[in-house]
Design a protein that fits this description.
mainly alpha; about 5% strand; globular; binds zinc ion
Length: about 160
């Protein structure tokens, strides 16, 4: 499970974290991600099928998808913002989300996932305002985030 992060992956992570830090208001976010990377709390599992997940022990685990050819640095940055948001959620929220989903017959993880998707969306909107010349890239990522939420959880991200 653990083990060294391959050099190319670490380099890409550092670049994505630097990109996050270049967006006004996200300096502290980038700093805490940088600390996590140094502390070994960002992990890479080459065989993982999920894009990424956040663990209860305060770690972010990434699979190969955000590093695949065709994936953008902004996509990796957005993923890191999303997963770090989960680390700020009360661990019980996952359970609450599950039972709320069962009770309302909606997707069981929608309540838990929605604010993390929203955090990523907010970051991408701020990025778009900061770097209007990169609008094509940020529009593409925004579309991907919104469609992923909609197709996974059956509701629109507001
Ligand atoms: Zn999530």
């Amino acid at each position: 499970m653990s083990g060294e992060i391959p050099g190319a992956v670490r380099e890409r992570l550092s670049q994505a974290i630097a990109l996050i830090g270049s967006v006004p208001g996200y300096e502290a976010e980038a700093e805490s991600l940088r600390e996590m990377l140094v502390a070994g709390r960002i992990r890479y599992v080459a065989t993982m099928e999920d894009r990424a997940h956040a663990g209860l022990l305060g770690t972010i685990t990434l699979g190969p998808e955000p590093f695949a050819p065709g994936g953008t640095l902004l996509g990796l940055a957005e993923t890191l913002v999303h997963e770090r948001f989960h680390l700020t959620q009360n661990p019980l929220e996952k359970t609450v989300s599950f039972w709320a989903g069962v009770a309302t017959k909606s997707d069981v993880m929608a309540r838990y996932e929605k604010p993390a998707y929203q955090a990523a969306e907010n970051f991408l909107r701020r990025f778009a305002q900061t770097f209007p010349a990169l609008a094509t890239e940020s529009d593409t990522e925004l579309f991907a985030v919104r469609s992923s939420f909609e197709s996974s959880y059956g509701e629109v991200l507001s």
